[in-house]
Design a protein that fits this description.
The complex is a heterodimer of chains A (289) and B (249). With 289 residues, chain A is mostly helical. Chain A is built from eleven helices and two strands. In chain B, helix 5 runs parallel beside helix 6. Helix content of chain B is 33%, strand content 24%. In chain B, the strands form two sheets. Chain B has a six-stranded mixed β-sheet with strand order 6-7-8-3-9-10, with helices on both faces. The chains are: A mainly alpha (289), B alpha/beta (249). Chains A and B meet through helix 5, helix 6 and helix 7 of A and helix 2, strand 6 and helix 3 of B.
């Protein structure tokens, strides 16, 4: 039970990234893979600041800013140099590896004896319940803020930018600027996942971000499949289903582990699982058409 | 309202496929004029429209809008004066967003999109009332995604959207080319009503000579990147359809 609750909590922690990928992939239709770098960046900043004794609440804005900066960089490379979004992301992600290493100072920082956000609540006897509640509360606030943002006039302009660029230009919207802001928000959210996961697993490792974009992508695709299957139009419900996708994804990996799959195989399982999510609906569609 | 001075535009300069789309075009369009712009494919109509809107910068020459030098202003900044309707009904609206969201953006065309929720009861009512004036029965569909409506309905709504915020200039780039004849008529009549009601300066590109004859108070024919004919209200009123066909023979 604790094992699955722990997977549930990890799903919650990764939901921030899922929301970020939802913004780039589904709202802006930009394939952004800065994620691997900005996720580790968030975790690195968190580890360094927490071990230096910064209070948790003050670490959050720094993490957000670090992630946003990574996103702005990708956005600038993409819009100013007119470089393909995918390549822009790879460039920034690769560069971030060195940045992350110099932020950390070494390849791994443990967070065993520091105050983490998950120790903030002590209502239940069993610590994992407290932790799940902290995670749920955090994501509730985060997704609430994001839902509000997407419903504002600015949010409508954001959603329209990914939908019809000729329309938004005619409506006085600077598409390039909008994309940069979108990438900044998405990577700030991703960094926030790094912030949460570092505290969840009690360490930050330079390699923790490798392949994380695939986890996020798969999670968003699960969420998106549910959204289109249930024909959900309301934006806050869509965000909820994206988070549900993140949790389901971790649950599937947890099941795989519990039936005896070797942990070394986890990345392969992840890749095959995402392939299944993307591939099976297409095969089914082909047969019916 | 619109003043073009010695506008030239070259595509692919110094290459084998170099095209001189506009050749030193001088054109002045006064407030309230409704210009029908005709010409064969490749005559430079759309390039001319794009130079006015800012989508295509001129190679040479200057563009003045509302007496202000707009030559260097990008398209999204010129939207302060200009509203556009595209040939492709998908171009002027965001298909996945609701009709209401689309109208909200249109209402903010010339102002900042801020972090407040602008769609409230009063705004919904305003949009519903405006759409009801079209008489197409679309006022109950404001919550639907724009993409679920037909091309004609979307074009009519795009036109209406241009009146949600202050507009001086309306650019219509073959707005009815993708529509069936009945929808086309509805769209053009809507356009005419809006142009009159809001005293808009309009440039209307069309390949339909009958429409060019029926609508507008000035007619310009483009040929090989130059203004071939320019008929004022009086000359246009005396024009016969047969005569126009001969221009293209």
């Amino acid at each position: 039970m604790v094992f699955y609750l722990s997977a549930f909590l990890l799903g919650l922690c990764l939901s921030a990234m899922g929301l970020g990928i939802f913004i780039t992939m589904k709202i802006f239709r930009i394939p952004d893979i800065t994620t691997d770098g900005s996720y580790t960046l968030g975790a690195a900043v968190t580890a360094v600041l927490l071990t230096q004794g910064w209070p948790i609440w003050s670490v959050i804005p720094v993490t957000l800013l670090a992630g946003a900066a990574a996103g702005v960089l990708t956005g600038l490379v993409h819009t100013r140099f007119k470089i393909d979004a995918l390549l822009s992301g790879i460039l920034v992600m690769t560069g971030l590896y060195s940045i992350n290493l110099s932020v950390l100072g070494r390849s791994n920082i443990p967070l065993l004896n520091v105050e983490t956000i998950f120790k903030a609540l002590s209502i239940f006897d069993k610590q994992i319940y407290n932790e799940v509640w902290v995670g749920a509360l955090f994501l509730a606030i985060l997704s609430g803020l994001l839902a509000y943002l997407l419903r504002t006039d600015f949010g409508i302009a954001m959603r329209a930018t990914g939908n019809s660029e000729s329309m938004t230009r005619a409506m006085g919207i600077n598409n390039d600027q909008m994309k940069i802001i979108g990438l900044a928000i998405a990577n700030a959210l991703t960094a926030l996942s790094g912030f949460l996961v570092a505290q969840y697993q009690s360490f930050t490792d330079i390699n923790m971000g490798i392949g994380i974009v695939l986890v996020g992508l798969g999670s968003v695709l699960i969420g998106d499949a549910l959204i289109s299957w249930l024909k959900i139009r309301k934006i806050w419900w869509q965000l909820l289903f994206v988070m549900l996708g993140c949790i389901l994804f971790q649950m599937v990996l947890a099941v795989a582990l519990s039936i005896g799959v070797h942990p070394n195989m986890l990345k392969l399982i992840t890749a095959l699982f995402v392939l299944a999510i993307v591939g099976i609906p297409r095969l089914v569609r082909k047969e019916t058409s | 309202m619109i003043q073009l001075n010695h506008i030239s535009r070259v595509f692919n300069p110094d290459q084998i496929n170099e095209v001189l789309a506009l050749k030193e075009v001088d054109l002045e369009i006064k407030r309230g004029e409704f210009v029908c712009l005709i010409g064969s494919n490749g005559s430079g109509k759309t390039t001319l429209l794009n130079v006015i809107s800012g989508a295509v910068p001129p190679s040479e020459g200057s563009v003045f809008l509302h007496g202000e030098d707009a030559t260097k202003l990008p398209e999204h900044k010129r939207s302060r004066w200009i509203a556009r309707v595209f040939q492709n009904p998908l171009g002027g609206t965001a298909p996945d967003l609701s009709v209401l969201d689309n109208f909200r953006l249109a209402a903010l065309r010339t102002s900042k999109k801020t972090l407040k929720i602008g769609i409230n009861g009063a705004f919904k009512e305003k949009v519903r009332a405006r759409i009801a004036e079209l008489g197409l029965g679309l006022e109950d569909k404001v919550q639907q995604p724009m993409g679920t409506l037909s091309g004609g309905q979307r074009q009519a709504l795009t036109l209406l959207m241009s009146t949600m915020d202050h507009t001086d200039i309306l650019l219509l780039d073959e707005p009815t080319a993708a529509l069936d004849p009945r929808s086309a008529e509805i769209v053009l009549q809507t356009a005419q009503r809006i142009i009159k009601a809001y005293d808009l300066t309009t440039v209307f590109i069309t390949h339909n000579l009958q429409d060019a004859l029926n609508y507008g108070n000035r007619l310009i024919q483009m040929k090989n990147g130059e203004v071939e004919r320019d008929l004022d209200t009086e000359a246009k009123a005396q024009l016969q359809l047969q005569e126009m066909y001969e221009w293209f023979a």
